[in-house]
């Protein structure tokens, strides 16, 4: 919980928080919603977005450090011949040992403590008896809850030595996350993030998954706003300091369309092509952004 309820002021010439793309004075200023200039209140009223204060951020960062340590542990242990359920055990035990809760476990009925998505699996892979083979890629998506606060991050790892295709999709996807993050500053919009990612991915002949998006995070697993990895410049909600959300592009080497398997969770590329993903939890700062789960 935040003890710092400091409000953020919107200037007359700043972009209007309603997302219209107009200056505040030409839009909602004096028209009710944002007339008091209290963005925290307005963002909750209008979008149900809960902006975070410095105490909240400290806590989410602590969770973020645990999430990154978990990913490091997994990376160190990954080897050909391993089954994906071993990754689940590693993540579950490490999370609990550190006084945290694995957020995926029982989340809307998800049966395991981490998502593990191999090759053509886009996301929400359920750990089980699938064997990791030399040349595979595997995304490990870790979300932990420490002292009630959530942080969410994922990386795609090589299993053994990567081939050419595998190297390409992983590199492009990592760059897509970077390009999205670079857009994050107050006054820009959610659409700017998606636009940057989509341009990069499609410019490399890859495609952007539409069905799953980034999301607000911190007090809950999935909060508003949604953060699509495609879109138009200047479109959608305006970024303001204190917003915390994930950027988590899922990029396919082939076409964008997907299927959900009969388990009700596993999303796979319809054409069987490789799919990769990287994810970080990002905070909009007064100047630029800060990652609460920072990695390169
Ligand atoms: N960690 C995923 C995300 O980035 C969500 C997984 S939901 C689960 O949003 F239920 F599959 F765990
Ligand atoms: Co995640
Ligand atoms: Co996420």
Please describe what this structure looks like.
The protein is of the alpha+beta class. It has helices spanning 39-47, 54-77, 84-97, 164-182, 190-203, and strands at residues 101-102, 115-118, 121-123, 137-146, 149-158, 207-208, 214-216, 223-227, 244-247, 250-252, 258-260, 267-269, 275-277, 280-284, 289-291. The longest helix has 24 residues, at 54-77. The two termini are 29 Å apart.
List keywords for this structure.
binds cobalt (II) ion, 3-stranded antiparallel beta sheet, 5 helices, 4-stranded antiparallel beta sheet, binds 2-amino-4-trifluoromethylsulfanyl-butyric acid
How do the strands and helices of this protein lay out in sequence?
Layout: H1 39-47, H2 54-77, H3 84-97, E1 101-102, E2 115-118, E3 121-123, E4 137-146, E5 149-158, H4 164-182, H5 190-203, E6 207-208, E7 214-216, E8 223-227, E9 244-247, E10 250-252, E11 258-260, E12 267-269, E13 275-277, E14 280-284, E15 289-291
Antiparallel strand pairs: 1-4, 2-4, 3-12, 4-5, 6-10, 7-8, 9-14, 10-13, 11-12, 14-15
Helix pairs in contact: 2-3, 4-5
One cobalt (II) ion binds next to loops.
Question: What form results from the Cα inertia axes?
Answer: globular
Number of beta-strand segments: 15
Euclidean distance between termini CA atoms: 29 Å
Q: What percentage of residues falls in helices of 4 or more residues? A: 25-40%
> How much is the radius of gyration in Å?
19 Å
Low-confidence stretches: 1-6, 32-36
Q: Structural class of the secondary elements?
A: alpha+beta
User: Could you report the average pLDDT, rounded to the nearest whole number?
Assistant: 94
Ligands in the structure?
2-amino-4-trifluoromethylsulfanyl-butyric acid, cobalt (II) ion
């Amino acid at each position: 919980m935040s003890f710092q309820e400091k409000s953020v002021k919107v200037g007359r010439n700043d972009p209007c928080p309603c997302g219209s793309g107009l200056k505040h004075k030409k839009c909602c200023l004096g028209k009710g919603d944002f007339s008091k200039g209290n963005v925290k209140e307005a963002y909750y009223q209008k979008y149900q977005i809960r902006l975070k204060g410095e105490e909240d951020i400290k806590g989410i960062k602590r969770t973020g450090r645990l999430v990154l340590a978990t990913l490091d542990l997994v990376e160190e242990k990954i080897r050909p011949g391993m089954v994906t359920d071993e990754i689940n055990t590693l993540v579950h035990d490490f999370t609990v040992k550190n006084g945290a809760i694995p957020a995926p476990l029982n989340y809307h009925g998800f049966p395991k403590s981490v998502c593990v998505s191999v090759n053509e699996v886009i996301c929400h892979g359920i750990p089980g008896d699938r064997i990791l083979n030399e040349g595979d890629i595997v995304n490990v998506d870790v979300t932990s809850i420490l002292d009630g606060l959530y942080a969410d991050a994922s990386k795609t790892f090589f299993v053994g030595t990567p081939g050419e295709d595998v190297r390409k999709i992983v590199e492009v996807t990592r760059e897509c996350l970077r390009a999205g993050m670079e857009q994050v500053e107050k006054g820009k919009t959610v659409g700017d993030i998606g636009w940057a990612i989509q341009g990069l991915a499609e410019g490399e002949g890859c495609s952007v998954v539409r069905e799953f998006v980034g999301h607000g995070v911190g007090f809950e697993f999935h909060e508003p706003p949604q953060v699509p990895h495609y879109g138009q410049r200047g479109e959608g909600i305006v970024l303001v300091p204190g917003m915390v959300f994930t950027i988590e592009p899922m990029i396919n080497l082939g076409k964008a369309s997907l299927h959900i398997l009969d388990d009700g969770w596993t999303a796979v590329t319809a054409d069987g092509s490789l799919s990769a993903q990287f994810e970080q939890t990002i905070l909009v700062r007064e100047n630029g952004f800060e990652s609460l789960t920072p990695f390169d």
